[in-house]
Amino acid sequence: MAEKRPENTYKSVTSSPSHPPKAGSSSTIKPANEMDLPSAEKKKMNKYVFACSLVASMNSILSGYDTAVMSGAILYIQDYMKISDTQSEILMGSINIYCLIGSTVAGRISDWLGRRRTIFIAAVIFFVGALVMAVATDYWVLMAGRFIAGIGVGFAFMIASVYTAEVAPATTRGFFTSFPEIFVNAGVLLGYISNFALAPLPIHINWRLMLGLGALPAVFLGIAILFMPESPRWLVMQGQLGEARKVLEKTSDSSEEAEMRLAEIKEATGIPEHCNDDVIQVPKGRSSGQGVWKELVRPTPVVRRILIASIGIFFLQQASGIDAVVLYSPSIFKKAGIKSRSSLLGATMGVGFSKTIFVLVSTYLVDRFGRRPLLLISTTGMIFSHVVLATGLTIIDHNPDKKLTGLLALCIAMLLTLVAFFSSGLGPITWVYSSEIIPLRLRAQGLSLGVATNRVISGIIGMTFISLYKAITIGGAFYLFAGITTVSAVFFYIFLPETQGKTLEELETLFEKPKPHAPLHSENK
Questions:
Q1: Which superkingdom heads the taxonomic lineage of this protein's source (predicted)?
Q2: Among 122, 217, 328, 370, which one is least packed by beta carbons within 10 Å?
């Protein structure tokens, strides 16, 4: 049984008469499964939603860039500041721990100030963090800049997916909510390219420029955000039905779908169907997300299953070891046998290209074949890549005096294959799936729990990977990741239902336990 809706205590605060029901409005709207909506394959792209998703996902470029650029910059920072491997690990991985603050705070801020203003705040944080890192005079100033940037990463990971999911129509929601992951990968690639292009500069300049260039996209984002609309779902939560209707008219495939989406959002937030004024009074606390944490800590059975699915996929995404590859590609390639810095950075660019190109595969297929098939294919391919890569690295590690060119090529190929499988499934679908299944009232702060879990695991891996492979060998580390990814595939198969094509308000019913059939009794005994 679905959650009990809050008591309807909403009042009109406009003096104008209520809007009469439009054609296809709440009084005559067909259920979502009866509407003749065009399929994702046949309909035209909604250019307005495309532009909104594009701008919102710019935050993700910044988070990808800030995370990846350090993989090359650290080679020169170590020489310039004379820091140890332990300090390097902390500098590299701590950004994901810092982003815990950002992702947790962003959920509450986005419920309070709105999704749009939260995106702007993230851009400002990124700008400040990049400048502090660029002018750092010692390790601790650099860590302070990394801390600020980490908060920005937390904001970006949470708000981009929430905003895009709430703006996009159901038929293309998978496509548009893949945008943040596409831009994360684009940011990773730009970070690697920056490393390679700026490496020849003097050591006191190159790493500063690598880190400082992250401020430029933040300026563009801060300007572009001024032209974006607010999320219609947030507007409804504030009682601004008129503004929400205008946004939905622009972001839906038809006027009928816009009215249907508005009716479903109203139902999800407990607003009576007959409330059609432009502005209504929302009960205190409900509009700003107060009480949400209490519902998350003591969830209903349905919400509990949703949280297990959401937090589980976020946990397993990072436990697969992907950020060890993103952060430590030069170290992995060095273990495989590549020696020169230019070759290490060049090979690392290949990782960025592979991640960026193959995330487009998921974007193209997610609304055609669904979330589950791509997740299962992705994790199966990652298991294979992990095992072969681990085997190759183990053989090379046991033959340090031999030049094993064939195995070096195999390790490079498997590392690129690993990130390709990740980016074509597990990478983007984690964000698509989680932003879909969490109920509207809980979405921003509920998603922040998943993001926080994701970043903690990423931070732990980032801050311990060098120590891990020193303890169990580089091959052993990837065998470990292969085992965890196997657990992931089993979890996805058992616990994650398909969400393709369903509206955000319908998805909650997927996590209800099926009702037992009543026993059949014969009328005549």
A1: Eukaryota
A2: 370
- At 82-139, the pLDDT tens digits run 888 888 888 888 887 888 888 778 878 888 888 888 888 888 998 999 999 999 999 9
- What value does the mean pLDDT of the chain take? 80
Q: Report in angstroms the alpha-carbon separations of 185 from 21, 179, 311.
A: 44, 10, 22
Tell me which residue has tokens 């032209």: 227
- Exposure of 41 by Cβ count < 10 A (0-12 exposed, 13-18 middle, 19+ buried)? exposed
Chain centroid offset of residue 393 CA:
31
Contacts of residue 487, Cβ cutoff 8 Å, sequence gap at least 6: 316
Calculate helix-pair angle for 443-472, 322-336, nearest 10 degrees: 20
**pTM here?**
0.71
Cα 444 from Cα 235, distance rounded (Å): 14
pLDDT higher for 100 or 147? Answer: 147
User: CA 379, CA 320: separation in Å to the nearest integer?
Assistant: 9
CA dist 261 and 267 (Å) reads: 10
296's tokens: 């998350």
CA 420 → CA 99, 185, 358, 389, 474, distances in Å?
25, 11, 5, 14, 20
- State the Cα–Cα distance between residues 106 and 133, nearest whole angstrom: 23
The neighbouring-strand residues paired with 11 are 281
Radius of gyration of the CA atoms of the chain, in A = 24
Of 42-51, 177-186, 370-379, give the lowest mean pLDDT range: 42-51
Q: Is-contact 445 107, C-beta < 8 A? A: yes
Instruction: Give the percent of the chain with pLDDT over 90.
Output: 20
